[in-house]
Amino acid sequence: MNTDDSFSDENTTRRLVDIESTDRLTSASIDKLSNKPALLKSYLDASIGNTFSELMFRLTHEIYTEKRASNLWHKIVTHRESLKKQLNRDMGMLVAALDYLSNISGDISSPKIMGDLRIEEAAEMATRDSLTGLYLRGVFDFMLEQMVSDHRKYNKSLSLLMLDIDDFKQVNDDHGHQAGDEVLRKMGEILMKIIRDTDFPARYGGEEIVIIFPDTAIDPAAVIAERFRAEVHRYFSDFGPRSITVSIGVSCIRNPDVITASELVRQADQAMYKVKRSGKNRVGKNA
C-alpha cells in the first residue's frame, strides 16, 4: 500500500482522525483486544461477539456475519500495523478498518458513518436484555473473566452477587407470564437505582440476576444486597395473594478457595441456595 494513495485527501484524513478520537464504546472495546488473540476469541464466542460486526455495520451499513468479521479482523490488524510504521503513529482500529475497506480491499467505495444515536442503539441491542435492561449472560461471562483476572493480579477484592426470585414459577402459574415479565422488568428497574456506577449487573438466566462488585469486599457487597432485598420485599409486599421476595448469595475472590471466575459464581450460587433452604428472602455470604 502506498501512503500517498491512502491518505492523499487531507479532508478525508482529518475526518478519519476526528472519528477515531471520539470516545466510542465499540472502538475502545476492540482496541483493547487488538493484541490479545485469546481474549478476542472469548469475545467473539460470547453473545457480544458481533461487536466487531457492528463496527463494520457502522462503517458500511452492511450486515457482516461473525465469521466474515473475524476474518476481516486479522487483515485489518495487519493493515493497522502497516499504517503505524508508515505514519509513525497508531491510527486505531476504526481508521485502519475504514482505510482497509475503502482503499485496500475495495469492499466499499463511499464509507458511511452511523450517527451517535444509532451506534448507542446498536450497542444496547447487542449487550442488554430487552426485558430487564441488564447486561446479557454472554457479556457477563466475558467481563467476569477479565475482572477476576485483573483483581487477583493486583490483590484487590471483587465480589459477586447472585439472586433468584423466590417461587417464580408459582408467580407465572398464578398470574400469567405477562405478570412474571413485569416482575422481572421491575427487578431490573429497582436494581439499577441501588447499584453504583462501577457495578456490573446482568440477567444470568430465567429469574436469576448477577452483579459484579469491583474493588469491593464481601461485607460491603452484602450491605448492597440487603438494600436490594429489602426494597424488592417492600415494593412487592401487596403483589396479589403472595409477596415477591428474592434470595441472594454473595461471594468474593479474597476467599483463598476462589481462583477462577467459575468458582466465584459457584460459591455465590451455593450461598444463594443455602438461603433458599433456610427460609428464603435473605442474604447469605460464602466467604
Distance between the termini: 57 Å
What structural class results from the helix and strand content?
A: alpha+beta
Figure out the total of helices. 13
Report the sheet-strand fraction.
Answer: 5-15%
Determine and state the CATH class of the largest domain. Alpha Beta
User: What is the name of the CATH superfamily of the largest domain?
Assistant: Reverse transcriptase/Diguanylate cyclase domain
**H/E series:** HHHHHHHHHEHHEEHEHE
Q: What's the Cα radius of gyration?
A: 23 Å
Q: What share of the residues lie within helices?
A: 55-70%
CATH second-level architecture of the largest domain: 2-Layer Sandwich
Total domain modules: 2
Low-confidence stretches: 1-28, 43-50, 111-117
For the largest beta sheet, what order do the strands appear in spatially? 2-3-1-4-5
Number of strands: 5
Please explain how this structure is put together.
This protein has two domains: 3-127, no CATH class; 137-286, 2-Layer Sandwich (Alpha-Beta Plaits). The chain contains 13 helices and five strands. The protein has helices at residues 3-6, 10-21, 25-32, 37-45, 51-60, 66-87, 92-104, 116-127, 137-153, 168-175, 177-194, 218-235, 261-277, and strands at residues 158-165, 200-205, 208-214, 246-252, 283-286. A five-stranded mixed beta sheet has the order 2-3-1-4-5, sandwiched between helices. Helix 2 (10-21) runs antiparallel to helix 7 (92-104), helix 6 packs across helix 7 and helix 10 (168-175) crosses helix 11. The radius of gyration is 23 Å and the shape is globular.
